[in-house]
Write a structure and sequence with these properties.
The complex is a heterotrimer of chains A (290), B (187) and C (815).
Chain A lengths: L1 H36 L13 H55 L6 H32 L8 E4 H18 L3 E4 L6 E4 L1 H17 L6 E8 L4 E7 L31 H11 L4 E2 L4 E4 L1
Parallel strand pairs in A: 2-4
Antiparallel strand pairs in A: 1-3, 4-5, 5-7, 6-7
Chain B lengths: L15 E2 L2 E2 L5 H11 E4 L11 H6 L12 H11 L14 H14 L4 E5 L7 H17 L3 E5 L3 H6 L6 E2 L2 E2 L16
Parallel strand pairs in B: 3-4, 4-5
Antiparallel strand pairs in B: 1-2, 6-7
Helix pairs in contact in B: 3-4
Chain C lengths: L1 H10 L1 H40 L4 E5 L1 H6 L11 E13 L5 E6 L1 H6 L4 E4 L7 E5 H6 L9 E4 L2 E9 L10 E5 L9 E8 L5 H12 L6 E3 L1 H4 L10 H10 L5 H12 L1 H28 L1 H10 L3 H38 L19 H9 L10 H28 L2 H6 L18 H10 L3 H37 L8 E5 L10 H9 L3 E16 L11 H5 L1 H7 L3 E3 L5 E10 L1 H6 L30 E5 H8 L6 E6 L5 H12 L5 E5 H43 L2 H10 L3 H43 L10 H28 L2 H5 L1
């Protein structure tokens, strides 16, 4: 009889204890999550044996990931702000020019020559505006994954030739030689139109930032798992510290302040290439294509 | 890599992971830290010969008692790596490449913050290598992981976000390239 | 090849050490036990020669044959060391049964009855006798004294060496050759050379002189050591045991034991097998460590034969070093401690009834105890035999190891050990402690390995339990067997050395003894002879008494145990005992006409004699003895020392009381009991020592197996430690496995012992050693401590290599 009572009491004790433990666990987890919500650092150790410590470790990571995401979001907000300001800056000049030229054109005593000249300049500014807004639109759409384009195995030569076509004139004007090593016309996964645009961009940059009389070279190296397409120029080059930043939105190196540019060319190219699962690198300009 | 993983003790200097000086941790705390935050892919797979592929993959998760094994995630991992239909086989029944893939799955199973990989694609054919690298990159993006890979293969190296050259035991001050997204600036 | 073997030995130090230690211990045990047994045998032989005489056979001849025979000592078929004659010339019954014997010098030498004082009688009226006889004749023992025997006067001319054992029933008076008497019985005593088998020599002798074998009596106590009878062929024994319906397994065992000393050789054989098993196991571990190397060697082109040869050479090198050292060790230690251990293997009765024993158990012990310093002999034969046997067995073990290696394909051999049970079962679905599963699978791989380890773990414990059981029984047996010479457990016994019924102990004396303070539990018994008449038809088995009737003992005294009367009915002689109340109570269940299995306080002078030791008896209360038969005086008294009384004083007291009673003899059991306890202690020590040594040998094996079991997976353990198992967690898992092994081994010991070994031991003890005390089991403390020890051993065996792993750097393990 006494044994039964003792067993019963033991049972109650055990049940009571387990309820107590459960509640404590709930409370500590609650506190942990509160810390996450209010972005406070967690005081508990995550390097102990036991379930609580394992949870603490995971919650720590969640906190970090959240923190990072918040930081990224802030960054993006900043970027958008600067984009907007940049954009307004970018647009300001052509718009100013536009109004200037429109004003000029509205002068009655203008000679035909001057009118044509002004009209041409106007058109150029419009083109530029068009290009800027177009790029911006593309950029936004690509970022939001609204555009899809087909990627097929196509011979690469055609694409490169397309790109060369676009910039050939500019290169000629600056007397920059545009050469390429001999290469096989291999099939690569890409979209012809967009990739051509990217190549064109790169070549344009090469031409833009190379002194007259310089050389731009295109070379292709097929490796086991990817093919490397390299655009080399002997222009002013990119400083070491800047290499990480050149693919960023609107980044323009301080050294290029003299030259015209919007700072979104490389960024756009990178976006497109990423869609094609291509890795771009700058080491004085190297591009990789799988 | 052994130093970062806490497997070795530095003769001088400190190692900081996520702002924490791991040389200040006791041996036991270091082990637990390693268990929860670091995944390993060893050079010679180092699978447990007595467990089948599935169990080998789930192994690190079970080290914390009562940890829940997310079956869906493991299935996804194994399918991605193409060894799902071999999940009940034992390592000595698999080829080298399959074993390596199992090792990678095992390293990823616990979604560790840091993945230390020693020549992970050494024995893989080119197609598998591409898939594996793709998987690593995707996982890294998704779970905000850092994957530290040691390789002699320049090509693989180029795929990474950041390259650190080590020559004769010293980090050579070469050019470091970071992608536009992710990654710290500090070294 | 020699160099390779030698360098392997040096490299695998722990295996080498384990194998070497096992060999040394086994050799020590083997040689020690053999030498011990051999020495005991030799010493017992010497002893018995001392007691029973230095002769082998005696032939009963009549006087004519005896005088005409020309005995040649040497022959092509036999070689006699010595022979002597004894003629019994006359006998007298008063005051005691005494014989007049004529002897020659040779006989006296062989029977240890030489003249120690004075000279041998020459005239017909001269006699010589020993001191015991003289004391009984109330002679002072001075030479020249005149003794009156049976009406005749004799002059004492010489004192003869006393024969052993103070209570021989026959006292001898040595007379000269000129003495004439009616007796014609002559006995020829032969002592053959012990280098050849005795029975062959005897047969040759008998054939030569055309003497029939019936007349021959052998000095069993001596010849039993020297193959006095032709042993039955083993084949015959087994055949008889198996085919004949009277034969059975027990018969085979007993016969083999008595003819070929089965117990001894059997034990040695078991020991050898045990050690072979252990050595094979250890060796196969060291070989499996190197399978990959051997695989590579084979790919390089070294033939399997050479590899096997190297392995065997290794084993043999170790053996050649270990065996002699072990023998030296064993024999050396025993030589030092022989005095403490010389009683362990006293050759007891092996199942043959001793037909002519003159000594009771007590006296034998006295005889044994006073034999002086026992000498230690080394059993060279056994050592050599063991050497050859072990050498071949080791070679076979080496071969089998190599062959098992060959069974695996070469590639598998290079890849290493892949032994575990494969199940297509995903563990993570059920029990997510996979690290634990890993350790379990590593440490409990194939069934064979597990069972092997369990067996060796439990073997030591089993042997310990068996020897403890044996010792327990020995203890009780010793206590009881001595005391139960008479069935009462008394310390002292007073009896009358006479076969005349009127010689008794007066009732007065008994009353006084009962009053003595120093004595307690005094029981006095009255006795008389009786005869029971039964009708012819009541005797169903009329041939039963034929054998007994023929015995000369009974014929001379009573005309036979069961005599047919003229009217056809039978008269059976039987004992009548009169017990007092104390004794009657000891018989426990009784009303009138109860049947008890045997009487207490047995008499030994009348019907209970050598031929038939459990005569019919009738037990009456003393009062009835008085009323029915008018017997008032007592025939024997049993007494014990009172509590806290010195046994010496009690014995003195008793002696005082019976001094005046003629022919009363006091037997003091206490010393015998003490001596026997001393022997028992020796035996305990010895068996426990053996059990401990066997335990140590199996310990090596366990340590080695566990060591290998854990260290062979060093790499995998390193990996899981790298992945995040803490040191404490690792210890925990490994320890759990060790404890599991320990518990399983305990279970195995328990089952093995209770279901199987107990029965074997009981069988052995019932049939071979012939004592068993039901209900006497191994005390719980010993069983408990054996089990706990087992668990501790398993735990230690597992922790030591685990420590090694934990202490080493993880990196070094993985790479």
């Amino acid at each position: 009889m006494a044994l039964h009572i003792i067993l019963l009491i033991l049972l109650f004790i055990v049940i009571g204890y387990s309820i107590y433990r459960k509640r404590k666990t709930f409370q500590s987890i609650n506190r942990l999550l509160d810390c996450v919500l209010s972005q406070e650092p967690i005081a508990l150790s995550d390097t102990k044996e036991g379930e609580l410590s394992a949870l603490v470790s995971k919650i720590n990571r969640i906190q970090q990931v959240l923190g990072k995401q918040i930081m990224q979001a802030e960054d993006e907000k900043e970027q958008v702000k600067s984009l907007v300001s940049n954009m307004s800056h970018q647009l300001k000049t052509p718009l100013a020019n536009l109004s200037l030229y429109t004003e000029i054109l509205s002068i009655p005593q203008l000679t035909e020559e001057k009118k044509a000249d002004a009209a041409q300049k106007l058109k150029r500014q419009v083109d530029k505006l068009d290009w800027i807004t177009g790029s911006l639109a593309k950029m936004v759409k690509l970022e939001q994954n609204a555009i899809t384009f087909d990627i097929e195995p196509l011979p690469i030569r055609g694409t490169i030739l397309d790109a060369i076509d676009t910039v050939y004139e500019k290169a000629e004007k600056k007397h920059i030689s545009l050469t390429s090593e001999p290469y096989d016309d291999i099939l690569l996964y890409h979209n012809r139109k967009w990739t051509a645009e990217v190549f064109a961009n790169l070549l344009e940059n090469a031409v833009k930032y190379t002194a007259p009389g310089g050389a731009v070279q295109i070379s292709i190296h097929p490796y086991e798992i990817y093919t490397e397409i390299m655009f080399t120029d002997n222009g002013c080059g990119i400083r070491g510290e800047e290499i990480p930043r050149i693919f960023q939105r609107f980044y323009r190196s301080p050294e290029t302040e003299q030259t015209e540019g919007s700072g979104i060319g490389l960024y756009l190219s990178n976006l497109i290439l990423e869609k094609e699962k291509v890795k771009s690198m700058a080491k004085k300009n190297i591009r990789l294509l799988p | 890599m052994n130093l970062i993983g806490g497997l070795d003790i530095p003769t001088e200097g400190n190692i900081f992971i996520k702002g924490k000086d791991i040389s200040s941790l006791t041996r036991k705390e270091l082990t637990i830290f390693r268990r929860r935050n670091i995944g390993f892919v060893f050079q010679n797979y180092s699978l447990m010969p007595v467990l089948n592929v599935y169990d080998n993959t789930a192994l690190p998760i079970t080290f914390d008692r009562g940890n829940h094994i997310s079956r869906g995630y493991i299935e996804e991992l194994l399918r991605e790596l193409g060894i799902w239909d071999k999940r009940k086989k034992y390592p000595n029944e698999l080829s080298g490449g399959q074993q390596q893939r199992t090792a990678i799955a095992r390293a990823l199973a616990n979604r560790p913050a840091i993945l230390l990989a020693d020549e992970p694609t050494g024995n893989l054919d080119s197609k598998t290598t591409v898939e594996v690298i793709g998987l690593l990159k995707a996982s890294c993006r998704k779970y905000s992981q850092t994957i530290l890979m040691v390789t002699h293969n320049e090509a693989i190296a180029q795929i990474c976000d950041r390259i650190i050259h080590i020559e004769d035991g010293m980090i050579s001050p070469g050019i470091r390239k970071l992608s536009h997204k992710g990654g710290d600036d500090r070294c | 090849m020699l160099k390779l073997a030698y360098s392997y030995i040096r490299y695998y130090k722990s295996q080498t050490f384990a194998i070497l230690a096992s060999i040394i211990l086994t050799a020590a045990l083997l040689s020690g036990i053999s030498s011990l047994m051999y020495s005991s045998r030799l010493n017992s032989l010497e002893n018995n020669k001392q007691i029973y005489g230095d002769w082998h056979y005696s032939i009963d001849l009549d006087a004519d044959t005896c005088n005409t025979i020309q005995i040649e000592a040497q022959d092509s078929n036999y070689q006699m060391e010595c022979y002597g004659k004894k003629s019994i010339k006359d006998m007298t019954a008063a005051p005691y049964p005494m014989y007049f014997v004529q002897t020659d010098e040779a006989y006296r030498q062989m029977a240890h009855r030489q003249i120690i004082d004075g000279q041998y009688p020459e005239d017909a009226n001269e006699i010589a006798a020993d001191r015991y006889t003289l004391a009984n004749l109330s002679s002072s023992g001075t030479l020249g004294e005149v003794l009156s025997i049976d009406g005749q006067d004799f002059i004492l001319t010489g004192i003869v060496e006393s024969s052993w054992a103070a209570d021989t029933d026959e006292m001898e008076l040595f007379v000269a050759n000129s003495f004439t008497g009616p007796g014609t019985r002559t006995l020829l005593y032969l002592q053959f050379s012990e280098d050849e088998k005795l029975y062959r020599q005897l047969n040759a002798f008998l054939n030569k002189y055309k003497i029939s074998g019936d007349a021959v009596q052998s000095n069993d106590e001596v010849t039993k050591f020297l193959s006095g009878e032709p042993p039955e062929g083993i084949y015959d024994i087994i055949k008889f045991g198996l085919t004949n319906e009277e034969g059975n397994f027990t018969y085979i065992i007993l016969k083999l034991q008595s003819e070929y000393n089965l117990a001894f050789y059997g034990m040695l054989l078991l020991l050898c097998i045990f050690s072979i098993f252990i050595i094979h196991s250890i060796f196969s571990i060291s070989v499996s460590k190197r399978t990959s190397e051997y695989g590579i060697m084979e790919t390089l082109g070294i033939s399997g034969m050479r590899i096997g040869g190297t392995l065997i050479l290794e084993l043999w090198l170790l053996f050649l070093f270990g065996y002699p050292s072990g023998c030296l060790l064993g024999n050396g230690i025993l030589r030092l401690f022989y005095q403490q251990l010389n009683r362990v293997f006293t050759v007891k009765g092996t199942g043959n009834a001793d037909i002519r024993t003159a000594l009771s158990e007590t006296d034998r012990i006295f005889a044994g105890a006073d034999s002086g310093n026992a000498v230690f002999h080394t059993a060279w034969n056994a050592i050599a035999a063991g050497f050859v046997f072990l050498l071949t067995a080791l070679a076979i073990a080496g071969f089998s190891t190599v062959r098992s290696m060959h069974r695996q394909s070469l590639r598998q051999v290079i890849n290493g050990d892949t032994s575990f049970i494969k199940r297509r079962h995903i563990y993570s679905f059920r029990n997510p402690n996979l690290a634990h599963v890993i350790v379990r699978k590593f440490m409990f791989p194939r069934r064979r390995r597990v069972i092997g380890i369990l067996l060796s773990l439990s073997l030591g414990g089993c042997m310990f339990l068996c020897s403890a059981y044996m010792v327990e029984n020995l203890k009780v047996h010793a206590d009881m067997s001595l005391k139960s010479d008479d069935g009462l457990g008394s310390d002292y016994r007073v009896s009358i050395k006479s076969d005349i019924l009127s010689d008794t102990i007066p009732a007065q004396t008994v009353t006084e003894i009962k009053k003595t303070a120093e004595l307690s539990e005094v029981y006095a018994t009255r006795y008389t002879l009786g005869e029971l008449t039964i009708q012819k038809r009541e005797l169903e088995w009329d041939k039963y008494f034929d054998q007994m009737n023929k015995s000369s003992y009974f014929i001379q005294r009573f005309g036979g145990i069961c005599v047919q009367k003229e009217d056809g009915s039978y008269g059976i002689k039987y004992n009548i005992y009169g017990y007092d109340t104390g004794l009657l109570e000891q018989l426990q269940e009784f009303e009138i006409a109860a049947i008890v299995s045997r009487p207490l306080a047995r008499e030994t002078s009348f019907l209970n004699a050598d031929s038939w030791s459990n005569m019919q008896s009738l037990i009456l209360p003393n009062r009835q003895m008085y009323e029915q038969y008018g017997i008032y005086d007592y025939s024997f008294i049993n007494a014990s020392a009172a509590d806290e009384t010195d046994t010496g004083i009690a014995a003195d007291r008793l002696l005082q009381k019976i001094q005046d009673v003629p022919k009363a003899v006091l037997q003091d059991y206490t010393t015998a009991i003490e001596t026997q306890k001393g022997h028992l202690r020796q035996q305990q020590l010895f068996f426990s020592g053996i059990a401990v040594i066997l335990l140590v040998i199996s310990l090596f094996h366990i340590m080695n197996s566990m060591n290998y079991s854990i260290l062979s997976h060093q790499r995998e353990y390193g990996i899981i430690r790298a992945m995040g198992i803490t040191d404490a967690g690792f210890y925990n898992m490994v320890l759990q496995m060790g404890l599991l092994y320990g518990l399983l081994a305990d279970l195995l010991i328990f089952l093995l012992y209770n279901l199987f070994l107990r029965r074997v031991m009981d069988y052995y003890m019932i049939h071979i050693v012939q004592f068993l005390h039901i209900g006497k089991t191994v005390p719980r403390e010993i069983t408990g401590s054996v089990m706990v020890l087992n668990i501790l051993i398993a735990a230690a065996a597992v922790i030591i290599p685990a420590r090694k792993i934990v202490k080493s750097q993880i990196i070094s393990e993985i790479v």
